[in-house]
Amino acid sequence: MSGFSTARLKMVDGQVRTNDVTDRRILDAMLTVPREAFVPASRQALAYLDLDLDVSEGPAKRFLIKPQLTGKLLQDAEIDEGDSVLVVGCATGYLAALAAKLARQVTATECDSALAAKAREAFATLGLANVTCKAAACTEGDPSAAPYDVIILNGAAEVTPEGLLGQLKEGGRLVGVSAESRPPRAVIVTRTHGEFGHRALFDATAPVLPGLERAAAFVF
């Protein structure tokens, strides 16, 4: 077993299972999708640590969120094999690749076009044919493939992502970290009869996605 394979097993057993992720499909996906394939070569030794991993190549910081939070969000999203999924702010695409193991079709967006290209390259290398990545602002989503059964934020939002909620199917759900109030929490938003219901899931922190930051307060 290679060093990365051993680290992947330890990540699943020590970080993911221990945080109440019990869905066998998610555990299998996290055991088979190589997280190091989504990390710059200089940082691959950090690929399986319990941290939000900086994969930036430009001045704007972009992250793969912690493995345990990734697993919990996927589990709470309850992705069905027939679902169409949107992953917002995917960075280099790790969460989107996991979702592709669970869903019929995955659309991912990333505001950094260079990272979006890295994501597409990783998907192709791994033979994931049911996931695409487009360069787009986190607030935009991808209306061309909407509506979606599931939307997942690869990070936190300090404001309500109204434009994304409008891309949910009837009966669809959005999961991510809400940092609108303290403490920040993972939340699920469901669309029923055109109305949106919000429910807190668990306390969680994640880097705020570009474009979903709270507007800076004016100070004299």
TrEMBL record:
A Pfam family that this protein carries is: PCMT
Give any GO molecular function from the UniProt entry: protein-L-isoaspartate (D-aspartate) O-methyltransferase activity
Which SUPFAM superfamilies does the entry link to? S-adenosyl-L-methionine-dependent methyltransferases
A biological-process GO annotation = methylation
Q: Which UniProt keywords apply?
A: Methyltransferase, Transferase
Where is it found, in Gene Ontology cellular component terms?
cytoplasm
Question: Which InterPro entries does this entry report, sorted A to Z?
Answer: PCMT, SAM-dependent_MTases_sf
Recorded hits in PANTHER family, A to Z, give:
PROTEIN-L-ISOASPARTATE O-METHYLTRANSFERASE
The family classification in the record reads: Belongs to the methyltransferase superfamily. L-isoaspartyl/D-aspartyl protein methyltransferase family.
The name this protein carries in UniProt is Protein-L-isoaspartate O-methyltransferase
**Species of provenance:** Bradyrhizobium huanghuaihaiense
